[in-house]
TrEMBL record:
Gene from which this protein is expressed: LOC118416848
Bias (Basic and acidic residues) ranges: 307-317
A Pfam family matched in the record: BACK
Superkingdom to which the source organism belongs: Eukaryota
Region ranges (Disordered): 307-327
Record bears the keyword Repeat: yes
Name recorded for this polypeptide: Kelch repeat and BTB domain-containing protein 2-like
SUPFAM superfamilies: Kelch motif, POZ domain
GO terms, biological process: proteasome-mediated ubiquitin-dependent protein catabolic process
GO cellular component, one term: Cul3-RING ubiquitin ligase complex
This protein's UniProt keywords: Kelch repeat, Repeat
InterPro entries referenced in this protein's UniProt entry, alphabetically: BACK, BTB/POZ_dom, Kelch-typ_b-propeller, SKP1/BTB/POZ_sf
Amino acid sequence: MFTSDVAESRQKTVVLQDMDADVFEEILSYFYSGTIYVSLDKVQPLYQAADLFQLDYVKTACKKYMAMNVDSSTCVDLYRFADFFSMDNNAAFFSMVAVRSRSLIFICKFFAEVSHTEEFYSLSVNQLTEIISYDKLGVKEETIVWEAVVRWVQHSREDRLHHLPSILPHIRFNLLTSDDTAAILEHPLVKEIPGSSEVSNLAVIPKTSNPKRRIGMDAQEMLLLFRTIGTDTTQMLCYNPTSKLYTTYSYGRHYFDMRREVYTQFKVLTATVTSNNDIYALVEESHDKLALFQYIHLADKFEKKSSFHREKPEHSPRQHIRAGRSKPSDKAIEYLVEVDGHLYYIAVHVTSQSKERRISMVMKKYRYSTDQWQDCSKPSADKQPCSVVVSSGKHLFLITNTEMHRYDPSQDSWSKVTPPSPNLEPCTAVAMGTEIFCTDAGLRKISVYNIEEDSWSELPGCSGLYLKPTLFVFEGQLHVCMHNEQIYLYDRSEGAWKYLLTLPDGPWGIRGSMLPVAYMYVYNPTS
């Protein structure tokens, strides 16, 4: 600008239009330091400034940050922004086309929620029609789509009413009841459309020729299990014990590592499902390195989020080299759980040699915004060999033979609560409502902890055989999956376990002491 023969080279003052002073200060600092700090509130103006000044590194940093921070609260805004700048057809993951595509996936997933936001009402007509035309819209009823269109039109009625005839063909009338269809045709907005008889024609098209169902209409609650034996240890089983429908997914074929698509295989150590129905898996990349993966439902693939190093236990018995002395052993049980909206990694190490046994714990919190892990406080060590971790709402609980510890994430602190009855030897636990159910490896009895009352009670179990059970909650009822892959339902009114079924196409493994349950979009179910 200053060295070529343009008007600015002859001016004492150059005005940068639509450039915020704070943003320019960040850019100017980058010129000298080579470092840029990105945050959610300034990532878009920073990208615009970088685009103006042709700063490719800053643009890439902004695109990476946007891609990592797409969620239900940001997806519409980032979709609109990325749509404007998506003329860059770079095939790399960190392109605006990829940010736009990722944002669209989240809009489809949270459509019922985001369609009530101001950002949604600011969509253009082309953006709106693109969204509602998707098969992968996560809605249970087509009326949700129609109601979203009504709100969008009414937000600026005079300017948008004339777009309604081009929007209505994307409403799938074959998925509506006759009463719902009649209500749409009688809606005041439709009545105002010139030539509204054309809308009536849309509603009477034979149902066999209309578009297919939205994917959200066929979502089912399903158990998630992973292959443990055989050559293909990268299969995930999604199973519904009620309908007996299931599907298997070979998740090791490919995944996104946030830069490129990678074809490889990985073995899941443990997995969890968050309150937003997000599936996260912990993967062993190497002996001392773990990676976090997220399953993107509507994209039907796993995406690598971050990696971190395994920490060794704090207590390690001394090495003995004299003949006849056993070598120390270290057994770790690893958990991935959600507590109060945040993801935590917990490893409970049991190190032992001869009669000496110690427990130590590693605990880390995952920060979604930065894709980083941070250390958390740990409870005091316990010498009991059996322990289990369970999450319930806003707290995390560690249950041992003789103690129970509660973690408060808001304070990053642990406290002791009422312990279970002696000799519980906890093997598995699950939370349901305000109760935590816990049992041993033989399912001899069920110990029940009331969170609100800080008290324990007991329920009948099964025989004292070594069943290695895993408790889980499905459709609001307590279930257990045995080591032999048989599933039982607990009938609390009768105080008895009832056999339901045996898992198909085994063997399948349960990672940790919990069995994840998620709402899954079933693409090719089998019965």
